[in-house]
C-alpha cells in the first residue's frame, strides 16, 4: 500500500492524468470565454478532448530534410518537462508531490523547456514558415522568460525561501501579495501569456501570416503532444501565480476558484487587444516589463 499511493498521486491525482484532463478543461473554458466575449457560441465541452483524440489516431508524417529523431523526440520532451514541473507545484491545492530547497528555480527552468522544444522543432524543418515561427518563438522567449522569472522571485524574496511549498504556506497566513506587489502580479500574468504565445502575443504562430509557425510541419501525435504541453503549462502557470499572489492554495476549492478567476482575466486580455507585431512584442515588453520587475525587486530588497 505504501508503494501504491505515490504511484496513484503521480499517475492519476494530482499527477499526470488529472493534469492532462484539467489542461483540456482549462483550454475549453478559455476558448468558451473568448467566444462569449466576442458574441460567439464557442466550442462544446468535449471539443478539446475530441481534437486531441483525432490527432493521436492520425498518421504522423515526417517531412523530408528533417532530423527524424529530433522531430519525434521534441514533442515528447516538451510535454515530459511540463509534467515534471507539476511535481513541485501545489496542484489542486494539495501539497506538492516532491519538494526541496530551490525547486522554484527548477520549476521555472522546466517550464521553459517546452518553448525551447518549439523553437528547435521549427528550426529542424526546412519549411520557411516553420523557420520564421522558430525565430519568433526563440526571440520571444528571451523577452518573456526574464520578466516572468523576476515576477516569481518577488514573493520568494519576501518569504525568504526558494521553495514553492514554503512560499505557498507563507501566502496563506499573510497579506495577499497582489496588494503588496501589484506590479509583479501584472508582470507575471503578461509573462505567462507571452510564454504560452496567447493573443496578443501570438506572433510566433500567427495563422494569417505564417500558418502555424514553428509547428507548420507537425501533424498527428507530435502536434497533439505540443498542444497538451501548452495546456499543462497553462494550468501550472495559473497555479503558481495563484499560490504566490492570491493568498496561496489551501484546498481544491481554493485552487479552482482562484485559477479560474485568473483564467477569466487572461480571456479578457486576449479579447481586448489585437495581435502585436513581433518587434512590438519583443522590444516594448523587454524594456518595460523587465524594468518594472527590477524596480519592484529593488524596493523589496531596500524595505
UniProtKB/TrEMBL annotation:
<feature type="transmembrane region" description="Helical">
    <location>
        <begin position="141"/>
        <end position="162"/>
    </location>
</feature>
<feature type="transmembrane region" description="Helical">
    <location>
        <begin position="102"/>
        <end position="121"/>
    </location>
</feature>
<feature type="transmembrane region" description="Helical">
    <location>
        <begin position="284"/>
        <end position="302"/>
    </location>
</feature>
<feature type="transmembrane region" description="Helical">
    <location>
        <begin position="174"/>
        <end position="194"/>
    </location>
</feature>
<dbReference type="Pfam" id="PF00146">
    <property type="entry name" value="NADHdh"/>
</dbReference>
<protein>
    <recommendedName>
        <fullName>NADH dehydrogenase</fullName>
    </recommendedName>
</protein>
<feature type="transmembrane region" description="Helical">
    <location>
        <begin position="234"/>
        <end position="253"/>
    </location>
</feature>
<keyword id="KW-1133">Transmembrane helix</keyword>
<keyword id="KW-0812">Transmembrane</keyword>
<dbReference type="InterPro" id="IPR001694">
    <property type="entry name" value="NADH_UbQ_OxRdtase_su1/FPO"/>
</dbReference>
<dbReference type="GO" id="GO:0005886">
    <property type="term" value="C:plasma membrane"/>
</dbReference>
<feature type="transmembrane region" description="Helical">
    <location>
        <begin position="260"/>
        <end position="278"/>
    </location>
</feature>
<dbReference type="InterPro" id="IPR052561">
    <property type="entry name" value="ComplexI_Subunit1"/>
</dbReference>
<keyword id="KW-0472">Membrane</keyword>
<feature type="transmembrane region" description="Helical">
    <location>
        <begin position="68"/>
        <end position="90"/>
    </location>
</feature>
Amino acid at each position: 500500500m505504501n508503494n501504491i499511493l505515490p504511484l496513484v498521486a503521480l499517475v492519476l491525482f494530482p499527477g499526470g492524468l488529472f493534469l492532462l484532463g484539467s489542461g483540456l478543461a482549462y483550454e475549453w473554458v478559455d476558448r468558451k470565454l473568448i467566444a462569449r466575449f466576442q458574441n460567439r457560441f464557442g466550442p462544446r465541452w468535449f471539443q478539446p478532448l475530441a481534437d486531441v483524440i483525432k490527432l493521436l489516431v492520425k498518421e504522423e508524417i515526417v517531412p523530408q530534410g528533417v532530423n527524424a529523431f529530433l522531430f519525434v523526440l521534441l514533442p515528447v520532451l516538451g510535454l515530459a518537462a511540463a509534467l515534471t514541473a507539476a511535481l513541485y507545484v501545489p496542484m489542486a491545492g494539495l501539497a506538492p508531490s516532491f519538494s526541496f530547497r530551490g525547486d522554484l528555480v527548477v520549476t521555472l527552468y522546466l517550464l521553459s523547456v517546452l518553448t525551447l522544444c518549439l523553437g528547435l522543432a521549427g528550426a529542424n524543418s526546412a519549411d520557411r514558415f516553420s523557420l520564421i515561427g522558430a525565430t519568433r518563438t526563440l526571440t520571444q522567449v528571451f523577452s518573456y522568460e526574464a520578466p516572468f522569472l523576476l515576477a516569481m522571485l518577488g514573493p520568494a524574496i519576501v518569504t525568504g525561501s526558494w521553495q514553492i511549498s514554503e512560499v505557498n504556506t507563507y501566502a496563506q497566513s499573510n497579506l495577499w501579495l497582489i496588494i503588496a506587489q501589484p506590479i509583479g502580479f501584472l508582470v507575471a500574468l503578461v509573462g505567462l501569456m507571452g510564454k504560452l504565445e496567447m493573443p496578443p502575443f501570438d506572433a510566433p504562430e500567427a495563422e494569417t501570416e505564417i500558418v502555424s509557425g514553428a509547428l507548420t510541419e507537425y501533424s498527428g501525435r507530435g502536434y497533439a503532444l505540443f498542444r497538451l504541453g501548452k495546456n499543462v503549462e497553462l494550468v501550472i502557470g495559473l497555479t503558481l501565480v495563484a499560490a504566490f499572489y492570491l493568498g496561496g492554495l489551501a484546498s481544491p476549492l481554493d485552487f479552482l476558484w482562484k485559477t479560474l478567476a485568473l483564467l477569466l482575466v487572461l480571456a479578457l486580455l486576449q479579447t481586448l487587444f489585437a495581435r502585436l507585431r513581433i518587434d512590438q512584442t519583443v522590444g516594448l515588453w523587454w524594456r518595460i516589463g523587465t524594468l518594472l520587475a527590477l524596480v519592484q525587486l529593488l524596493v523589496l530588497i531596500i524595505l
